[in-house]
Recover the amino acids of this structure.
């Protein structure tokens, strides 16, 4: 239990998707012009991460890892399918995103109105695939840890995009040198926020 | 039509400055920043991206008349994932240390926005040969930024280039110190911002209001 909480806190603040690994930067830069849409995209990312990462975790442990197919019988015990993981992960993500989009459209049109436009974008967001690939590298002990990791990294991403959107809204009133306007200054601010986030290094529960 | 007619040359050259994928179109930032702490992984990463973008461009361009519009994203992802898997296996076999350093970022070429952007914008509407050139050009344009960033980060951060010490011992004796901050992730963003600054100061038409 303690371990799960630790992973959760760590993935939000220390291993933050944006500031430590630069994942999902494309949509982070493109959709951070105002807080409301940024929040919408952030929530959609949390949602998709929490759905896809545990599914990929199960696939990884019971199908792809070296010796993972042992439950099928003795002859499968020394099979290693991990070279297939990129294709499987991206197929799972693309199809789950499609599925989620259809389910939301059917059952909650209001939510679809606010999240719907972002969902197709998310299939190719590196934060989602990155989450699954990091999961593969971290060797989690159980599905609980995988879920808490997915929730934590999603929330970390949401936090980052909402914060930068709020700063960019205020930035419109400041006098930035012309060549730096827009993209350049956003990069610098993200860098400064990253340095601030580094002060969380070493926190352990 | 020659192999390198004016139109094709433009397709190849443009991504270097006017429509550079990283600093003008803002594509593929994710991996561009993460692998640039040292020069060697940056070079390997650029080479992998050139190969993957060029060949997936060709494959999608060959298939462009047979792919149904509704499922094209999934087809593109599968093509990209296959090529990336091949590149990853080759790296593991011949450059194991670098492949360990690049860790998940080789896999992330699949969702690299340059790849998807080029497939959507160029390969779906063009013949294989221009598509190949477009892929090579964009891959190299991306690689150029990576190499510039990695050059400064490795030089200032560890005083080496490709692992060889280039800053003479005499300078250290005189009190020069490596700037440890350059190795940390946030500095990649700030170095890229400086490149954008210089680039836009020279190309006034790219400035935003």
């Amino acid at each position: 239990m303690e371990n799960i909480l630790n992973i959760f806190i760590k993935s939000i603040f220390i291993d933050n998707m944006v500031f430590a690994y630069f994942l999902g930067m494309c949509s982070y830069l493109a959709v951070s012009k105002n807080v409301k849409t940024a929040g919408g995209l952030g929530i959609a990312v949390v949602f998709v991460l929490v759905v896809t990462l545990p599914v990929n975790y199960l696939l990884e442990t019971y199908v792809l890892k070296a010796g993972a197919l042992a439950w099928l019988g003795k002859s499968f015990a020394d099979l290693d399918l991990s070279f297939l993981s990129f294709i499987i992960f991206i197929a799972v993500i693309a199809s789950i995103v499609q599925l989620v989009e259809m389910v939301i459209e059917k059952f909650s049109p209001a939510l679809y109105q606010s999240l719907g436009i972002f969902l197709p974008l998310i299939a190719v967001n590196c934060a989602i695939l990155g989450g699954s690939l990091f999961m593969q590298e971290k060797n989690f002990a159980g599905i609980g840890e995988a879920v808490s990791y997915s929730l934590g990294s999603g929330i970390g991403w949401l936090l980052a995009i909402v914060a930068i959107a709020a700063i960019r809204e205020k930035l419109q009133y400041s006098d930035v040198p012309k060549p730096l306007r827009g993209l350049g200054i956003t990069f610098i601010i993200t860098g400064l926020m990253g340095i601030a986030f580094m002060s969380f290094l070493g926190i352990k529960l | 039509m020659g192999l390198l007619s004016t139109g094709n040359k433009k397709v190849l050259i443009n991504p270097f400055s006017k429509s550079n994928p990283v600093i003008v179109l803002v594509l593929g930032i994710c991996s561009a920043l993460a692998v640039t702490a040292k020069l060697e992984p940056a070079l390997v990463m650029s080479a992998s991206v050139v190969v993957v973008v060029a060949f997936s461009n060709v494959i999608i361009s060959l298939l462009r008349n047979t792919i149904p519009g509704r499922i094209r994203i999934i087809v593109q992802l599968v093509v990209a994932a296959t090529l990336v898997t091949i590149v990853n296996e080759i790296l593991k076999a011949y450059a194991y240390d670098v492949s360990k350093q690049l860790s998940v970022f080789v896999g992330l070429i699949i969702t690299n926005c340059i790849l998807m952007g080029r497939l959507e914008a160029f390969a779906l509407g063009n013949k294989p040969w221009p598509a190949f050139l477009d892929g090579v050009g964009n891959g190299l344009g991306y690689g150029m930024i990576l190499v510039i960033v990695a050059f400064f980060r490795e030089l200032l951060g560890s005083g080496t280039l490709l692992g060889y010490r280039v800053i003479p011992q005499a300078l250290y004796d005189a009190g020069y110190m490596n700037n440890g901050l350059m190795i940390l992730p946030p500095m990649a963003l700030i170095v890229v911002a400086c490149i954008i600054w210089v680039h836009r100061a020279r190309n006034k038409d790219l400035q935003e209001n």
Remarks:
- Chain A has a mean pLDDT of 83.
- Residues 35-64 of chain A form the longest helix (30 residues).
